[in-house]
Specification:
By secondary structure, this protein is mainly beta. It is built from four helices and 15 strands. The protein has two domains: about 1-155, Barwin-like endoglucanases, CATH 2.40.40; about 165-265, Alpha-Beta Plaits. The strands form four sheets. A six-stranded mixed beta barrel has the order 4-8-5-7-6-9. Strands 11-15-12-14-13 form a five-stranded mixed sheet. A hairpin with a 4-residue loop joins strand 13 and strand 14 (about 230-240). The chain starts with about 30 loop residues before the first strand and ends with a strand.
């Protein structure tokens, strides 16, 4: 279970660098594809069996929240993303991964949105483990735990073969961090590639705003694609030569607090 191989929290855990925290915005709620790992219908940790819900729709829960920090920072989460203690994320035992949930601190009334991308906590009586950043925002860091309410805001979509149609790309030099190798595919498949979606918006202005926030290393390969079928403006990075390459970029972005997921792209 990667970072879930030991209970979150404990005397060896800690907050890390407070100066690195800053003001972390809440993530945008999206229906993301189910992660390839962490979604077995039943799994076992420390001899105890847990089940994963078939759907997050309508899910609510009240109980005790805790947090985890530097001990797990940079390690793989159950979903395969790297744990970033400075991003708004959380761990849950039963929700499909990944989903976005609203967490309300019932002790002080604060609330925020987090992305559930990990499994835990496996300490009796606790229902959710928050990242260090989320715990600070909710006022849970000092006390260590708090009474909370969780409400699911999105769904982890089962593989449905979602595909993006792109205009044939112009030849361009790629940044050094992204490989530009020609896909080794049969001729009928060369019109396919892979992209990483960072956001999907109904309004073009919101997509443009996200594009402007991307760092310069990604900007050269980032674009806005208007999907006429769904009427969404998608912020995409790519195309890339392989699914594995796109997945690696998703993990790299996750370590920097940027959500993304891989889609197959078909060129017009």
């Amino acid at each position: 279970m990667s970072s879930c191989a030991a209970p979150h929290g404990g005397s060896k855990d800690g907050p890390g660098a407070f100066y690195a925290l800053g003001k972390t915005p809440s993530p945008e709620v999206q229906n993301l594809p189910r992660s390839r790992s962490g979604n077995a219908s039943v799994y076992t940790v420390f001899g105890k069996q847990y089940s994963v819900l078939d759907s997050a729709e309508g899910f609510t829960q009240r109980g005790v929240a805790s947090w985890y920090g530097s001990k797990f920072h940079g390690r793989d989460t159950a979903s395969g993303e790297k744990y970033n203690m400075y991003a708004m994320t959380a761990a849950h035992k039963n929700l499909p991964l990944p989903v976005y949930v609203q967490v309300t601190n019932l002790d002080n009334g604060r609330e925020l949105v987090v992305k559930v991308n990990d499994r835990g906590p496996f300490i009796e009586g606790r229902i959710i483990d928050l990242s260090f950043a989320a715990a600070r925002e909710l006022g849970i860091y000092d006390s260590g735990t708090a009474n909370v309410e969780i409400k699911a805001l999105s769904e982890a979509v089962r593989d449905g073969g979602e595909e993006v149609v792109l205009a044939t790309p112009e030849p361009a030099a790629a940044p050094a961090s992204i490989t530009q190798a020609e896909p080794d595919l049969p001729s009928e498949e060369k019109r396919y590639a892979w992209v990483v979606q960072l956001g999907a918006f109904k309004e073009a202005a919101n997509a443009s705003a996200m594009l402007q926030q991307l760092n310069s290393n990604l900007a050269a390969r980032s674009s806005i694609n208007h999907d006429v079928n769904s009427q969404l403006y998608r912020v995409l990075v790519g195309p890339m030569a392989s699914n594995d390459e796109a997945d690696q970029l998703v993990n790299t972005l996750a370590t920097n607090g940027i959500d993304g997921y891989t889609l197959k792209a078909r060129f017009k």
